[in-house]
C-alpha cells in the first residue's frame, strides 16, 4: 500500500497536470541534465539525461520533433542523444502518471552559427569642416539573430550597441548602420564594428568577430601661406617652381605657363634654360574644388650691359616710384627710359632714372634701353606690381538671419575695390579662431570686388559670437614688411535655439529655517528667444519665490519654453528641519506591552532620541514593567537643533492577589472572616461570589472586601470566590470553607469538591470567553452566573 504522504503527492500531481502534458514548473517532477544546450550547429551530438522524483509512474520517454522514443517503465532516469543538425529541434521529456495524465519538461536547445562580418564605408556629404560617413556592418549568416549584439567603437571607445529582436532560428543576414561626422581637427579616426552572440551569462558568449576601418575629414585644396608668388633667375638657368597645397583627398596638380600647358599631376615644375620673363600658374584640384597659385618669373639676360636697381618693385597705387638703369660698357652711344609717362629721352650713360611722383597706372610697362656704337639696341624691363588695399571689407548673412540652431547658413565677406586680386587672401575668424582661408585665381591687375563665403552649421554656442574676415595682400618678398590688410567690422551671430536649464543640480538639501525658495536654485534658463520658466510640484504650478517648509520635500520640475520648443528639468529637494514633538503629555500603557513609538519626535535628519527619568539617562525598555510609571524627559537632537518634551507614563496592569487559593476549616458556631484585596492599576473592583446566608455580611475596608460570617453553620460551608477586575483584566481567588462538628463533615467535602470542579471549569470558560471577546475589540465583559442557590454579593454589607 502507498503511504498517505505518497498518495497525497499523487493527488497533487493529478490535479496539477493537464491533458496537454504540462506541469507547473514549481511542481514538475522531471529534472533535465543539462537543463539547456547551447552548441554550434553541426557539432557532435549531445546526450541529455532526464530523471524523475516519482518512485511510481507508468513510464518515461522523449519526444524529438514528431518522433517518440520507447516508453521505459520502472526506471527513474532515461537519456537521449540530441543532434545538432536541426535549427528548430524541439525536445521534451515526459512521464506518464496514469493512462490519461502525464507531465513534461522542455529542453531548451540553442544551435548557433558564428557570423562573418563585412564592413563598408560610404562618404555621404561634406559640410564645411565636417565630413559625414555612413558606416555599414553586414553580419552574414548568423543564427539565432535574437542573441546577436553589434557594438561600434570609435578609437577603441564604445559608442553604440545594437541588438536584434527577430526570433527566427535559422541563419540570416542583418546590417547595422552608423552615421558619423568627422571634423578636420580629428584627422584620422578608427571605427570598429564588433559582432558577438550573447546568450545571457558571461561564460555563454561566443568570440567577438570584428573589422576596423579608418576615416578622415575631406576638404578642398588650400595653398600653403608661404607659397611662392614671384621668382627671379638669370637667363639660361634651370629653375624649379613649386606649388604647396594641402587637401583631402590629396590634390592633383596642373601647370600652365603663358597659357601653355606645361605639366600634369606634379607639385613642381622644372624649366630648362629659362629665356625670358614668364607667368606660370599651378592649379591644385580634388573633387571638392581647386586652388590656383600664380608665379611671376623674372629673367635677367646674361651678359646684359644694363642693370636695374631695383629690378622688381611692389608699389601702392598713387605712391612715387623710381628705378635706376645703369651700364658699364664704353661702347655705348646713349641710353634712356621708354614709358607712357616718366620717360627720359636719349641720355648719356652710365645712369638714367625712371621716376614717377604718383604712380596711377595699374600695369606700368616701362623699359630701359641702351644703344651701342654699332647701332644695336638692348632693352630690359622691371617687374612692377601695383597694389591697392580694399576700400572696405564687410560680413553679412545675406538677409537670412536670425539663424536657427542646427541649420546651415552662408556668411559672405565682401572685399571692395582691391588689386591685384590674385595676391588676395581672405581669412575667416570665429571669435579668435581661424576657420577658413581662401585665395583667388583672377589675373586681373585692376581693382575688382571679390567675395568669400563661409558655410556654418549653427550651434547654440554661436549665439552672440562674432565672425569677421580679413583681406590681406600677399605681395611676396619685395612687398611691404607688414602685409597690407583690412579687417571687416565684427558680425555678431544671432542664433535661435530651444530652451534648457543649465547648472541645475539633481538633488539639493536645504534647511527649513533658511527660508529657501525655488528661485534660489542655481538653475539658469537659457534659450533664444529668452524662455519662460514655470515650476511644478506634484503636477501643480507653484510660486517659486515661496519659502519651502518641512512638508515640501520632493521632486520639482521646471518647464522652460520659447517659440522653438520646451524642455523639462527635475530637481529633488530635501527640506531638513530641527526636531520637535507633537505628542501628548500623558500616556497609559499596559504592562508587558512591547516598547513602541509612544512619543516620537519629528525632524530631518531623523533625530536621536534620549530618555531621562529622575534626572538620569535611561534605556527605553523592550517591555514595560509596573515600576516604569513616572515622569520622563525626552531629548531629541539632530544637526539642526535640540528639542525636549516632558512625558508622563502610567503603566496599567491587571489585578494580582497577594495570597493564592486556600482551604479554611472552622468549627460550627465559630465566627469567620474572609478578606480579599488585589494590587492593580487602575485599582480593581472587587466582588465576592458565594452562597448567601442570613449570617453572612460583606464590608469594605480601603481596597479590600471582607466577608464576615457570624456563628458559622453547615449552610456556610462551600466555595467563596473573590473576583478582582479592572479595565486591563481580571483575576479570581478561591477559598474553600469547611465547617466541622456535625455529621455533614464527611458528606459536604465531597459535594463541595464536585462544586469546586464545576465552578473552576465555568471560571476558566468565562476567562477564555473574555479573552476572546477582548481580541475582537470588546472590553466590557460582565459574566452572569446562573448557578442554583448561588447569589452575588456586591458593595458594603
UniProtKB/TrEMBL annotation:
Bilayer topology annotation: Single-pass type I membrane protein
- What superkingdom heads the lineage? Eukaryota
| Signal peptide positions on this chain | 1-19
Which CDD domains does the record match to this protein? Ig
The membrane-spanning stretches of this chain are 746-769
* BP-aspect Gene Ontology terms: cell-cell adhesion
Q: Which UniProt keywords apply?
A: Cell adhesion, Disulfide bond, Glycoprotein, Immunoglobulin domain, Membrane, Repeat, Signal, Transmembrane, Transmembrane helix
Would the keyword Metal-binding turn up in this protein's UniProt record?
A: no
The record places domain Ig-like at 115-216, 221-298, 390-487, 499-574, 655-740
**Which compartments does it reside in?**
Membrane
**Carries keyword Cytoplasm?**
no
InterPro entries per the record?
Answer: ICAM_N (IPR013768), ICAM_VCAM (IPR047012), ICAM_VCAM_N (IPR003987), Ig-like_dom (IPR007110), Ig-like_dom_sf (IPR036179), Ig-like_fold (IPR013783), Ig_sub (IPR003599), Ig_sub2 (IPR003598)
The main place the protein resides is membrane
Q: Name one GO cellular component term.
A: membrane
Gene Ontology MF annotations: integrin binding
List, alphabetically, the SMART domains matched. IG, IGc2
Q: Which family does it belong to?
A: Belongs to the immunoglobulin superfamily. ICAM family.
Output the PANTHER family linked to this UniProt entry: INTERCELLULAR ADHESION MOLECULE, INTERCELLULAR ADHESION MOLECULE 5
| Protein name (record) | Ig-like domain-containing protein
Its taxonomic path starts at: Eukaryota, Metazoa, Chordata, Craniata, Vertebrata
Amino acid at each position: 500500500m502507498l503511504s498517505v504522504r505518497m498518495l497525497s503527492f499523487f493527488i497533487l500531481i493529478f490535479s496539477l497536470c493537464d491533458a496537454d502534458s504540462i506541469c507547473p514548473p514549481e511542481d514538475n517532477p522531471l529534472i533535465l541534465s543539462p537543463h539547456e544546450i547551447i552548441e554550434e550547429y553541426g557539432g557532435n551530438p549531445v546526450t541529455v539525461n532526464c530523471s524523475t522524483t516519482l518512485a511510481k509512474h507508468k513510464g518515461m520517454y522523449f519526444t524529438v520533433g514528431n518522433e517518440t522514443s520507447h516508453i521505459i517503465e520502472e526506471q527513474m532516469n532515461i537519456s537521449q542523444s540530441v543532434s545538432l543538425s536541426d535549427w528548430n529541434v524541439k525536445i521534451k521529456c515526459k512521464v506518464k502518471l496514469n493512462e490519461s495524465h502525464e507531465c513534461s519538461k522542455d529542453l531548451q536547445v540553442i544551435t548557433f552559427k558564428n557570423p562573418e562580418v563585412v564592413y563598408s564605408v560610404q562618404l555621404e556629404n561634406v559640410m564645411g569642416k565636417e565630413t559625414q560617413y555612413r558606416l555599414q556592418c553586414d553580419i552574414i549568416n548568423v543564427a539565432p539573430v535574437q542573441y546577436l549584439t553589434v557594438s561600434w567603437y570609435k578609437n577603441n571607445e564604445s559608442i553604440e550597441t545594437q541588438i536584434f529582436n527577430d526570433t527566427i532560428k535559422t541563419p540570416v543576414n542583418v546590417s547595422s548602420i552608423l552615421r558619423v561626422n568627422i571634423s578636420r581637427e580629428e584627422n584620422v579616426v578608427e571605427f570598429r564594428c564588433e559582432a558577438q552572440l550573447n546568450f545571457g551569462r558571461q561564460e555563454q558568449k561566443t568570440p567577438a568577430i570584428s573589422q576596423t576601418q579608418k576615416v578622415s575629414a575631406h576638404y578642398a585644396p588650400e595653398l600653403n601661406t608661404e607659397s611662392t608668388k614671384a621668382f627671379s633667375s638669370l637667363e639660361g638657368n634651370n629653375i624649379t617652381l613649386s606649388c604647396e597645397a594641402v587637401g583631402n583627398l590629396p590634390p592633383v596638380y596642373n601647370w600652365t605657363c603663358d597659357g601653355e600647358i606645361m605639366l600634369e599631376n606634379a607639385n613642381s615644375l622644372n624649366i630648362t634654360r629659362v629665356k625670358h620673363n614668364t607667368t606660370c600658374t599651378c592649379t591644385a584640384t580634388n573633387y571638392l574644388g581647386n586652388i590656383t597659385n600664380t608665379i611671376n618669373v623674372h629673367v635677367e639676360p646674361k651678359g646684359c650691359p644694363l642693370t636695374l636697381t631695383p629690378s622688381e618693385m611692389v608699389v601702392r597705387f598713387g605712391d612715387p616710384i623710381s628705378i635706376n638703369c645703369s651700364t658699364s660698357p664704353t661702347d655705348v652711344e646713349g641710353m634712356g627710359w621708354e614709358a607712357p609717362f616718366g620717360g627720359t629721352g636719349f641720355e648719356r650713360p652710365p645712369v638714367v632714372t625712371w621716376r614717377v611722383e604718383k604712380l596711377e597706372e595699374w600695369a606700368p610697362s616701362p623699359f630701359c634701353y641702351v644703344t651701342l656704337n654699332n647701332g644695336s639696341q638692348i632693352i630690359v624691363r622691371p617687374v612692377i606690381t601695383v597694389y591697392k588695399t580694399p576700400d572696405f571689407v564687410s560680413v553679412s548673412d545675406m538677409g537670412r538671419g536670425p539663424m536657427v540652431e542646427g541649420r546651415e547658413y552662408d556668411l559672405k565677406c565682401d572685399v571692395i575695390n582691391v588689386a591685384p586680386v590674385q595676391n588676395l587672401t581672405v581669412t575667416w575668424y570665429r571669435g579668435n579662431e581661424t576657420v577658413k582661408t581662401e585665395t583667388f585665381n583672377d589675373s586681373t591687375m585692376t581693382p575688382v570686388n571679390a567675395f568669400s563665403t563661409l558655410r556654418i552649421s549653427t550651434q547654440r554656442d554661436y549665439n552672440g559670437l562674432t565672425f569677421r574676415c580679413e583681406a590681406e595682400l600677399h605681395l611676396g618678398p619685395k612687398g611691404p614688411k607688414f602685409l597690407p590688410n583690412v579687417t571687416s567690422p565684427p558680425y555678431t551671430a544671432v542664433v535661435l535655439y530651444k530652451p534648457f536649464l543649465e547648472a541645475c543640480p539633481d538633488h539639493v538639501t536645504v534647511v527649513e529655517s533658511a527660508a529657501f525658495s525655488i528661485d534660489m536654485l542655481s538653475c539658469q534658463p537659457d534659450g533664444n528667444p529668452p524662455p519662460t520658466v514655470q515650476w511644478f510640484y506634484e503636477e501643480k504650478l507653484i510660486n517659486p519665490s515661496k519659502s519651502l517648509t518641512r512638508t515640501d520635500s520632493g521632486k520639482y520640475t521646471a518647464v522652460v519654453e520659447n517659440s522653438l520648443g520646451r524642455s523639462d528639468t527635475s530637481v529633488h529637494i530635501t527640506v531638513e528641519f530641527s526636531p520637535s514633538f507633537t505628542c501628548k503629555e500623558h500616556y497609559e500603557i499596559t504592562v508587558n506591552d512591547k516598547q513602541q513609538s509612544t512619543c516620537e519626535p519629528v525632524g530631518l535628519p531623523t533625530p536621536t532620541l534620549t530618555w531621562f527619568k529622575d534626572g538620569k539617562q535611561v534605556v527605553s525598555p523592550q517591555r514595560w514593567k509596573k515600576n516604569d510609571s513616572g515622569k520622563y524627559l525626552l531629548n531629541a537632537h539632530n544637526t539642526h537643533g535640540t528639542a525636549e518634551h516632558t512625558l508622563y507614563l502610567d503603566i496599567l496592569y491587571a489585578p494580582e492577589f497577594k495570597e493564592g487559593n486556600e482551604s479554611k476549616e472552622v468549627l460550627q458556631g465559630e465566627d469567620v472572616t474572609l478578606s480579599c484585596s488585589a494590587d492593580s492599576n487602575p485599582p480593581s473592583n472587587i466582588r465576592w461570589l458565594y452562597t448567601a446566608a442570613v449570617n453572612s455580611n460583606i464590608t469594605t475596608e480601603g481596597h479590600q472586601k471582607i466577608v464576615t460570617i457570624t456563628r458559622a453553620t453547615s449552610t456556610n460551608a462551600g466555595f467563596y470566590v473573590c473576583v478582582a477586575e479592572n479595565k486591563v483584566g481580571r483575576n479570581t481567588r478561591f477559598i474553600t470553607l469547611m465547617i466541622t462538628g456535625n455529621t455533614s463533615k464527611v458528606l459536604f467535602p465531597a459535594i463541595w469538591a464536585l462544586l469546586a470542579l464545576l465552578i473552576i471549569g465555568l471560571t476558566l470558560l468565562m476567562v477564555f470567553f473574555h479573552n476572546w471577546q477582548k481580541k475582537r475589540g470588546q472590553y466590557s465583559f460582565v459574566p452572569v452566573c446562573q448557578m442554583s442557590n448561588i447569589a452575588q454579593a456586591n458593595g458594603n454589607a
